[in-house]
Amino acid sequence: LASTVPFYVDAFLLPNTDLAASTFLRMFRLLRMMKVEGRFDLALGMIDDVLYAQRGVLGTALFVGITVWGVLSSFFYLAERQNPDMIYCGAAPDWCFEDQDDVDTSLCTTDEWGIVDCSAAGCESKDGQEVCWNLYRSIVNSSFWTLTNLFGEFPLIDQHSFWGKVLGTFTAVFAVAVFALPVGIIGSGLEDQIARRREQKNNQGNEDEDEEEFAGDETTLRGTVYNFLNHHQSASARIFVTFVNALIIGCAISFMFVSLDGIGGRWHSFLGWFQFLSFLVFSLEYFLRMWSAAENPKYRGSGRMRYALHFIRVIDVLAIFPYWVGLISLGPDMGTAPTLFLLLKIFHIGGTKKAFVTFDEVIRENMGVLIVTGFSAVLLWIFFASILYYTERDSPDEEMKAYYNTIPNAMWITLLNLSGETPLAHYSNVGKVIVGIIGLFATAVFGIPIGLVGASFEELLSNKCDDSPDEDVNVDPYAPIGTGSGFQTDCYKFVNGNGSKAATVFEMSIFFLIGITVLIGILETVPGYEYVYAFSVAEWVAVITFTLEYIIRFLGAGADPDFSSNGFMARVKYLVSFYSIIDLLAIVPFYAAYFYENSWIDAHDEYFRMLRLFRLLKLDKYVPSISLIDDVFRLKKKILVIAGQAAVTLWFLFSAAMYIAEMHDDAMEIDPLPLYGCVEECSMADRYSNFFRAVPYTGIHLTGDFPLVEYGGLGRVILFFVVIAAVGVVSIPSGAIASGFADIVQSKAQIKAKSTSGNNVESRSGDDWYDIKYQQLEGQPPPNSIFGHNADIIQTKVKEYLDGNVDEATGKVSRTPFSKIGRLFFFSLIISNIVAVILESIPEIDKWVGNSAGNLFDTFESVSVFFFTIDYALRLLSARKSREALYSPWVYATTFFGLVDLLSILPWYIQQVLAETGLINGDEARIFRIFRIFRVLQLEDFITAFSKLDNVFRASKDVLKATGLMALIIWVGTSALFFIFEENNPNFRQCVGSIPFVGTEEKPGCYDFESTSACNDFYPGMCSQAVFTSMPNSMFLVAVFLGGEWGVVDFTWKGKFVCMFLCIAGIALYSIPVGTLFDSFGSIIGLSEEEEEDELQDGNKESPLVEYN
Predict the structure, then answer these.
(1) Across the strands, what pairs with 670?
(2) What angle (nearest 5°) sits at the alpha carbon of residue 916, between those of residues 914 and 919?
(3) Count of Cβ atoms closer than 10 Å to residue 371 Cβ
(4) pLDDT attached to residue 1034
(5) pLDDT in tens, 26-58
(6) Can you tell me the distance from the alpha carbon of 575 to that of 808, in angstroms, rounded to the nearest whole number?
(7) What is the CA radius of gyration of the chain?
């Protein structure tokens, strides 16, 4: 029907209209092909199995995600509704730009309703409608931007206010992980399904077709050549392999240096001849391999074609054929493009060959599922690109219009949308809905073939690289104290918080001072807080305390099991140990700057003060994290070597390809890049002017992020392959590091649990005192009221009204009609309150209702609070009869449900008191009204979700401690490095229009100064840095980077090294806590669902989605 009906509607019912739908809906005819060979059933069957197996967990996770989305949207609305940087004039009428290139939104005003007036900025409304508006003008508008943030995308990263950055940091660090739970659960389920299907296939056996198992006849020339090329047993064969590998590496190095502008003509000629000779050797090797292949019986006759189509042989052809074509058609001056293909020979080197032969196996093994899921992904791609083309092709925003003016152009941005990216964001209302649907649902389907390839490749590679560490990495961290004297033992115990209360206090003071001094180090980078006296006093106290700690550790080194030896040697070992170096970094710079005033150290005091951030590493002594990295690399050594070579190979090849594709791309203008020698009419050619500049940008794309979209046609084609194949492969080494780290921490946590076991109380993972006490109360009757029998009756009746009557024998819950009506009423009231909060945030509706006393919203709020207060009071009254409250009103009031019920009413009472005393005005009162959004948490009484999150955190607390500390160290450490390296990056500098980009000696330009402060000294208050202005600003940006979203990318060369570290390992290590939460959430929520399902199957209990017990 979808294939045919639009044609008839367009042709006969609406013959004189341009029915847009009829054009792109014709593609549904392609769906008919999915009937072929039953593959459609196989692909969707796998998805259906995952959804069915995870249905209980998914329902809970979805409720959590939607709630987090709603609450954060409300708070982002509060934070940004008055932010002038969030005022958008991109769709303003032409008269706003007659005398200016852009509207100065700092001159715009926002009234009490949230309506923007830009008359002072030369953009006056002529019809009473807003010509410019705040992007967060209502919770509805805020919800789209918040949704993109929860996808890990921050398209407005440099426009947020202070509180917006605080919320953005919270979103990037915590909320994204919670919101991603449903996707993570589905992904984990798909991996399980793939593994199960592969195991079934492997049980049937398979054939290994490695030609190296066959030995040729040494008495013939062909057999000798065959053995020489395939077995490498003779010294000459091994020398030849080394020679070829050296040529391959030489070609790679020559390609990199040829891309540099400053290389001399003689060197250029020499490298060209080297590439030509390498090409001759590669060609000769290929022809000899093809000729000698017939020595193997299975490659004779038609089998030779089979040999030619082997993955490595195809690579050989792709490496030499373009060079032949270029040499024959263009001669020696053929340029760099043909030499790019020679680099494909890198696939021959060591572990890289093994990895990509494995990749070939993955494609062949999963061909059936990949065809259908890939076909489905293409359909989604075309479908959503077509819809967005129709919704955005006439967008008043010029940038949006340029990228959606044709369906091919729309397919480029839609491809990025389907990969989880939102590089453009100023969509129409319909476009926002479509992009939201893409992010919430379509990305999961589109990602199936990509995830299938990546997961299968990783699993197959892991099976071939069964790692066993060289030594035991799970050493008991609770080993006995070393053999030191009594004094050494006392020192060791004291400094580790053992043996006395004084030792415990000393240890806690170390923790406190570490936190305080790190916070001071961050705050001192904020203008106006550089030299605060209180900070200096705190630093003195901290340094003296850390010095004392270092001396005690030094004296007690003989009792430390890590340095167990005689006193002298133990102290020597300690002096050169990791922790000693960290301790010294925490104190030596302070003394050096103090005792050597006006020295080089004192002149660079701001950098040495940043070394205080290294004090975070001191916590590694108490919660091992960074020090475990060596264990991780030993545990995952084999897979890291092979997968690492594969990742570096792809990174290198795609960097080279992107350099070739974009080196002359000047079609689209970009912002000035003074650091790269371009201040006007810059283009992507300036970013990709040589191979080395292409590397960090390509690395960012290989992490799955696309902050740059201004690519030409060839660049887009290359990045298409990055999206569909390379991202999954390149992420394997970082994934192996993450899984290895989690394995080691969990092993050490199990050792700790065994060494400290002895608790006889049986409990499940994640249970705390409440869960254990709840189990102990099973079968026990509630206590009698101190107010007599009548009070017992009232409390019991109220409890039955609120929670129903639970049959202790069967566990079945029954309700009276009055109880059911009350439950339905409160459910409706909660939903109505949420809708009211959203409607009140819309300026037009809020203005229509007004702020006069007794208006509709205020009246509804008063009525709601009245009923919620009664409900809270009744729950306090009946808590003595509620096992869920442990028969205690205090327990109810301090547990999740009690706090949520209190939070639903307390802000209203506080607002009334403050309003009566005149301490708040109408706009400030909005903060308290927004708190009503938390009433969504009262739905927890209907769908259990958030009350289980604390169990999730407790179940994974040991891993979270270590991985959380490591994530904190990476976050703060890389934030400090980015701040130091990028605070004066001219690529991020902005100056008022009267200052030229580049000036003269008498009147220097904006980019002529070494620092932004120097620019401001010459032009007071006229220069500013857009990003990395302070440590808090840097931490916000890096929190976003660590979530995989690169909001800014044009770094200095030192910043690029930090960027590449995050691409290679930092993001993966930072994400380990998130993966731990995925596993724990599934085990905790899944366990509950399984228990409830078993009871449901026995007919003993109602659905958990209807009744919460």
Answers:
(1) 682
(2) 40
(3) 16
(4) 93
(5) 555 555 555 544 445 555 566 667 777 766 667
(6) 65
(7) 33
